[in-house]
Amino acid sequence: MAKQKILLVDDDNDLREGLADQLDLLDEFSISQASGACMALEIIEENSFDLMIFDVDMPDMDGRELCKRVRKKGVTVPIIMLTGMDGDADTILGLESGANDYVAKPFSFTVLLARIRAQFRQFAQSEDATFSVGPYKFRPGTRELDLQDGLRPLKLTEKETNILRFLLKAQGEAVSREELLSEVWGYNSGITTHTLETHIYRLRQKIEKKDDQSISLILTEPGGYALNKLAL
């Protein structure tokens, strides 16, 4: 499964490196570190991330100012602020700078981890979320697949969007027909696998009809379906 990329920015080396080590142990995240705001801006200029964690009190720039600058660059991914202050006014200033969440020090790792996962879940449902699927940028919030050639985006139905979203979540691993039916249609005894197969067929016709497309995006696996790992 592809790892979610997190940028951790804090001038406290012990805290930053300790958090990075703990997150790395989970094997679901890829962690990059910056010891200050200016270093972070340089890294962000050359790399993309799925989530960022900024300390508020840094010597070269306030973390809230860093957050504002990152947002001005058009970066929409979740940003969590870490602060040694725990007042309502301070929290409001952080959220108004463009942060999605605010965690006061000292905090437990499990609390921060829960906040990180909550932000990933919320962002995946937002209109700002984009995911790469083959030649497309998949936007679940608007039910669209955008090509890089500036052409009009492909519109998906609600069911097609949810099928693609769930296959993407599996990151190339096979998903059974029963699991897809449960996730996309819910526990409805009137829905059969034929309904799913019809929707998969229509989705394939819609997204795999390009003459120059060299790979199939949706693969039929024993008992289910998967996204082609070459498309991720």
TrEMBL record:
Domain of life: Bacteria
Residue ranges constituting the Response regulatory domain according to the UniProt record: 5-120
Keywords: DNA-binding, Phosphoprotein, Two-component regulatory system
InterPro entries (alphabetical): CheY-like_superfamily, OmpR/PhoB-type_DNA-bd, Sig_transdc_resp-reg_C-effctor, Sig_transdc_resp-reg_receiver, WalR-like, WH-like_DNA-bd_sf
DNA-binding region: 128-229
Keyword DNA-binding: yes
OmpR/PhoB-type domain sequence ranges: 128-229
MF term (GO), any: phosphorelay response regulator activity
One Pfam family matching this protein: Response_reg
SUPFAM superfamilies given in the database record: C-terminal effector domain of the bipartite response regulators, CheY-like
GO cellular component, one term: protein-DNA complex
Name of protein: Response regulator transcription factor
Taxonomic placement: Bacteria, Pseudomonadati, Pseudomonadota, Alphaproteobacteria, Kordiimonadales
